[in-house]
Amino acid sequence: MYRSAYLYLVIATLCWGGNAVAGKLAIGHISPMMLTFWRWGFATTIICAISVPQLVRDWPVVKKNLPILIFLGLVGYVVFNGALYTAVNYTTAINVTVEQVAIPMFIFIINFALFRMRVSWLQILGFTLTFLGGLLTAVHGDPRALVTLTVNFGDAIMMIAILAYALYTVALRWRPKIDWRTLMAVPAFFAFLFSIPLVGWEYSTDRLVWPDASGWAITLYTAIFASLVAQVLFIKGVEQIGANRAGLFINLVPVFGTLLSVLVLGERLQMFHIAALALALGGIAIAERGKPASG
């Protein structure tokens, strides 16, 4: 019944796994806020170019729901991505990956705190397995690596990103009933606007790096796949199965990120990669089987 939602969420997390690789590749080629600025600039241009008639039809609803659409663009698009791209400049890839698997936990906590949303024991077991899958990937199959984790400025910035995306996911329950193109275009436009002062801050502090050829290529990837494709599919997934269940799929991001690192960065595929993928997928299957009757 929910096969399309599962497919949407797997593709979305695959694109976000690529975003993690792009973030690492971007260092030295384009600065974090400049990447955020151009990413949403390109994304807004592309989505508006293919949806102007739909935007006009949806405008009366958009006007009534601007606060939530602005919130989605600011928190889910600008804060999350700006914080992530900044964090990788100050902390290790292991730390950032470990920290991202906490997003579903924040979603569960926020949903319970605000709406007393029920969670079954099987869902908790499924969440634990997917968490272990992401964690296994993050430490490269060696639990002893956790001992070396240290908290620094980058980790603090990453916690902001994690909380931002959890809030974004929960807030999708208040999205207006508009076409998916409009739901993508309006927050993306505001994300672009809110990123302008961040670029100004980067320039004023002498941190701005104008994109070179590699920087532009990375930006286009993030605009098309990590922004448009992933966000639209994630929204559709949340729409069909809810934030709690969709949030579990986020634990596939570190798994896909590692697998893409093998393909893009030439890292060697190892058995723990396969084990992590099995844990993540198995955990999602168990959580889906144990979902409360209300979904």
Rg is 18 Å
Overall mean pLDDT: 84
Q: Strand pairing plus helix content: what structural class?
A: mainly alpha
Quaternary structure classification: single chain
Tally of DSSP helical segments: 13
Strand count, sense and closure of the main sheet?
none
Which band does the percent of strand residues land in? Answer: under 5%
Question: Count of DSSP E strands?
Answer: 0
Work out the helicity level. Answer: over 70%
Runs in which pLDDT lies below 50 for 5 or more consecutive residues are none
Keywords: Membrane, Transmembrane, Transmembrane helix
Domain EamA: 4-137, 153-286
Pfam families: EamA
Subcellular location: Membrane
Structure description:
This protein has 295 residues and is mainly alpha-helical. It has one domain. The protein has 13 helices and no strands. It has helices spanning 3-26, 32-49, 52-64, 66-87, 93-100, 103-115, 121-138, 153-171, 180-204, 213-241, 243-248, 252-264, 271-289. Helix 3 (52-64) packs across helix 9. It is globular. It starts with a helix and ends in a 6-residue tail after the last helix. 48% of the residues are buried. Residues 4-137, 153-286 form the EamA domain.
In short:
77% of the residues lie in helices and 0% in strands. The chain is mostly helical and 295 residues long.
Sum up the structure in keywords.
mainly alpha; single chain; 13 helices
Question: Secondary structure elements and their pairing?
Answer:
Blueprint (H helix, E strand, L loop, with lengths): L2 H24 L5 H18 L2 H13 L1 H22 L5 H8 L2 H13 L5 H18 L14 H19 L8 H25 L8 H29 L1 H6 L3 H13 L6 H19 L6
Helix pairs in contact: 1-10, 1-12, 2-4, 2-9, 2-10, 3-9, 4-8, 4-9, 5-7, 5-8, 6-8, 7-12, 7-13, 9-10, 12-13
InterPro entries: AA-Vitamin_Transporters, EamA_dom, EmrE-like
Family: Belongs to the EamA transporter family.
Protein name: Drug/metabolite transporter (DMT)-like permease
